[in-house]
Amino acid sequence: MASPSALPANTSPVVLAPCVLTIGNFDGVHLGHQAMLAQVRELAAAQNLGSAVMIFEPQPREFFAPASAPARLTNLAEKQALLAEYGIETLIVASFDSDFRSLSAQAFADILALRLNVQALVLGDDFKFGHDRTGDSQFLRDYGLHVTNLHTVTDIKGKGARISSTRIRDLLLAGDIDAANALLGRDYAITGRVVGGDKLGRTMDFPTANVDLKRIKPALHGIFAVDVVSLDDNGNVIADGLTALTDSKNPGVKGLRPHSLFGTANLGIRPSVDKDHDWRLEVHFPKLQADLYGLTLQVRFLHYLHGERHYESLEALRAGIHSDVIDLLEWRAQQPD
Question: In this structure, what is the dihedral angle of CA atoms 16, 75, 156, 120, given to the nearest 10 degrees?
């Protein structure tokens, strides 16, 4: 997949091969999104065209009201990796700003046809675009573009309920990871680089890797069992990427997937410590001694233990962490290798 690039409204034409395009936030790239992508690939192959997706950064609701915008299931890098995994050749990132939101439906259609070389589109049946959402699929057909509308994808096991990013957020927030994974079509994970923290966990004998979230706020909060792999610059899992860094006397605990280590994760705003309420993903690796700074880690969420708890002192916090680690290690011991 080509590297994502911003699409301002007033720059010179973008040089793209003729393509079939779909447009949306694609937050989570869930089963409903995957159905859209499959239709794009099918039409592109039948017409010997390229496959492309247009997304928005920031997502529109993040632009209009950042403080109340929905939590991100996937940041830009995660979304790019997933779209490539599902066979999309080109990712177009439209910069959602005041200029972009003020585009007329006609101007937006011109961008699609004249600058992006779009020959056909696959859109949801409720897709709207342009200033004041005046454009729709019929507008594009009248403009001269071929449009295929894909109806809402529903979950058969959920008695026909719509598969949506909102529904998945609700499930993750409730700690129902298995149900969220069923709608995603894969295990939920967060990818980020290990960055410096305040080293508070190290002072309590529970050192953690502070994983950069790259989003306003995460979609799930609390204490979790996780397994973690190290990724290379292309997003591929590095074989034994973590175990190669470990001390032979403190090799960590084997994770549930190949090349992974088991960890206990806290995802939240650290309400027990007198700090600003910044969201953090901190992973503790039991029985591990290794320097992980600078690595890109993919943290896969396996089991929800409980929500964040307030502790009145660092001593109480230490005891709470100790109890959580024991409980999660007991959970790990019950899982098959």
Answer: -10
Determine the 3-state secondary structure of 192 from DSSP: strand
What separation in angstroms does the CA of 18 have from each of 90, 94, 318?
Answer: 11, 18, 59
Look at the block and give the residue holding tokens 């997706």: 53
Contacts of 221 (CB under 8 A, 6+ apart): 173, 267, 268, 307, 308
Beta-carbon neighbour count of residue 41 at 10 Å? Answer: 17
Half-sphere exposure of 124 (CA within 13 A, CB side): 16
Contact 190, 218 (CB under 8 A): yes
Q: Worst-scoring range by mean pLDDT, 77-91, 158-172, 295-309?
A: 158-172
* Mean pLDDT of all residues in 127-133: 87
pTM over 0.85: yes
Q: Are strands 90-95 and 50-57 parallel, antiparallel or unpaired?
A: parallel
Alpha-carbon distance of 286 to 332, in angstroms, equals: 11
Angle, vertex CA 230, rays to CA 259 and CA 175, nearest 5: 85
> Rounded to whole angstroms, how far apart are CA atoms 232 and 334?
31
DSSP for 217-235, please give it: SBS--EEEEEEEEEE-TTS
Place of tokens 């991100």: 72
For residue 78, list its beta bridge partners.
none
Length of the chain, in residues: 337
Helix (H, G, I), strand (E, B) or coil at 163: coil
φ, ψ of residue 145 to 5 degrees: the values are -95, 145
List the one residue out of 23, 251, 11 whose CA is nearest residue 123. Answer: 23
Q: H or E stretch including 49?
A: none
The C-alpha atoms of residue 154 and residue 156 are separated, in whole angstroms, by 6
